[in-house]
Specification:
Radius of gyration of chain A: 13 Å
Low-confidence stretches of chain B: none
Oligomer: heterodimer
Number of strands of chain B: 9
Number of helices of chain A: 0
Low-confidence stretches of chain A: none
Number of strands of chain A: 11
Order of helices and strands of chain A: EEEEEEEEEEE
Shape of chain A: globular
Order of helices and strands of chain B: EEEEEEEEE
Distance between the termini of chain B: 35 Å
Radius of gyration of chain B: 13 Å
């Protein structure tokens, strides 16, 4: 149990376009999901906390209007990178809290975004 | 900022026990010690967590010192598939946000 999926696993887009990344908890309901970003050879950086049915809480320095987060159901959260630029190229990872396992976070496999 | 300190890298021979240290001298009484690992180009994987007692599961053992200021993650019989970056985290509960430090890059040598 406690499987989290992400779609797509990788995406290449042109500068100025928007990209949507989906995060799904496959076998459990997650009231809280988290979004992270990871640049090459660096650690994961928390971007925002997403709660089902409410607005996401963004970490300091993360632009909420650029990284739109929607958590419309207990099994799905989406991250939309709007007007993407090459500096947004990164590995985006989500996690979901499983109340059956002490609310432990389980991570998705990540989405690699390349903006040309 | 991360509240833990870990060596940037370690080597371990295949089949031997890998002992990964972590210092968390400012840990609060209600904070747990968590360990995750990230294999290259994958999402992090939960390994184990504990409060003050030593813990063991099918993946690893966690040894926490009596003063809780440091801990050691033990992989009893390391394999090449254990090559990864290992993160030691302190936090209050499972759904509390995770602040990742730089972790320890573990190399398993054949």
């Amino acid at each position: 149990g406690a499987v989290v999926s992400q779609h797509p696993s990788w995406v290449i887009c042109k500068s100025g376009t928007s990209v949507k990344i989906e995060c799904r908890s496959l076998d459990f309901q997650a009231t809280t999901m988290f979004w992270y970003r990871q640049f090459p050879k660096q650690s994961l950086m928390l971007m925002a906390t997403s709660n089902e049915g409410s607005k996401a809480t963004y970490e300091q320095g993360v632009e909420k209007d650029k990284f739109l987060i929607n958590h419309a159901s207990l099994t799905l959260s989406t991250l939309t990178v709007t007007s993407a630029h090459p500096e947004d190229s990164s590995f985006y990872i989500c996690s979901a809290s499983d109340f059956r396992n002490y609310n432990e976070q389980f991570f998705g496999p990540g989405t690699r975004l390349t903006v040309l | 900022d991360a509240k833990t300190t870990q060596p940037p890298s370690m080597d371990c021979a295949e089949g031997r026990a890998a002992n990964l240290p972590c210092n968390h001298s400012t840990i609060s009484g209600n904070e747990y010690v968590y360990w995750y690992r990230q294999i290259h180009s994958q999402g992090p994987q939960y390994i184990i967590h504990g409060l003050k007692n030593n813990e063991t599961n099918e993946m690893a053992s966690l040894i926490i010192t009596e003063d809780r200021k440091s801990s050691t993650l033990i992989l009893p019989h390391a394999t090449l598939r254990d090559t990864a970056v290992y993160y030691c985290i302190v936090r209050v509960s499972g759904d509390d946000k995770i602040i990742f430090g730089k972790g320890t890059r573990l190399h398993i040598l054949p």
